[in-house]
Amino acid sequence: MHKKIIFLAPLAWVLVLLFAVSSPSAAADQTGQREGISSITYHGWADSLLLNNGKAEVVIVPAIGRVMQFHFVGEEDIVWENDKLHGKPADPTAKEWINFGGDKSWPSPQADWQKMIGRGWPPPATFDSTPLEAHNKGGVVELVSPVEPNYGIRVHRHIKLDPQQPILTITTTYEKVSGDPVKVGVAVITQLRDPQRAFIKVPPQSKYPDGYALLNFEKPQDAKFKDGLFSLTRSHQKSSQIGNDGSSLLWMNEKYALRIDSPHVEGAEYAEGSSAVIYTNADPDRYVELETYGPLTTMKTGDKIERTNVYTLSRRTDSDPDRQARKILY
Length: 330
Hints:
Elements: H1 11-22, H2 24-27, E1 36-42, E2 45-52, E3 56-61, E4 66-72, E5 103-108, H3 113-117, H4 125-128, E6 133-137, E7 140-148, E8 153-161, E9 167-176, E10 182-193, E11 197-201, E12 213-217, E13 221-226, E14 229-233, E15 240-244, E16 248-252, E17 256-261, E18 276-280, E19 287-293, E20 297-299, E21 304-315, H5 321-329
Antiparallel strand pairs: 1-2, 2-3, 3-4, 5-10, 6-7, 7-8, 8-9, 9-21, 10-19, 10-20, 11-14, 11-16, 12-15, 13-14, 15-18, 16-17, 17-21, 18-19
């Protein structure tokens, strides 16, 4: 509740203060709220949630089924958002992909979408472009989807910000509630702003001698692989998608770094053989995707599978990106 102004002031200052208090544009999209979980309007999306631990904050937008930000309090965004779509509703009937940005979950393998939903692209609407229910469960936010009719799966995402550190944990669970058995894996797609470099920590016994497999589009730009660390930059002209059997990815710009950990399971089957994937998008939308993939599992009614991603945010302490990456990943 806003307090009334009880002191006298020149008329111009009174009008300025009243506007700042009452105007939705002045107050609706403010982050940096008090610690805990707050309800906010975020870029026009009502009933969004802000998690704040005093150091970092997370923005969750149930209206479009996404985690939309994770950054230090009062500092720059690192998650990519499509600002042309701010405040727009999700549209499950859309024929073209509505690319809001943020962090969300899709079913893998993507090669099965044509068989499962009758199209190879865009992603299944229930996973990507449907409003989700949000529940506060003792400081953990749970997002819950409707049942996807073709997969017979309901998605649960448990989102928790560490009480003291800039560490975000998201556990994504697929619950099979109806229909025939289906082989599926949990994929988590995190869209991030144009990096200085993006990295994957390659396991010592990796099956990829070059550090990666080219999954789609063009070869990666400025690819490097040395001493267990693969990295690349984003091309302005050509998209690329590469993968390997790693468990840790790293995004880095000139000021910040975001590490994403999601363990690879030895001996398990993965879509296209990859548990860690980097996608780089060509201009004009300047973003990359850090993607984690869980093992493929044949689910029957009553089964659940889950994937936990741990996101650790840090500030740069070394001007050399390779040295910084080694400090973070090793």
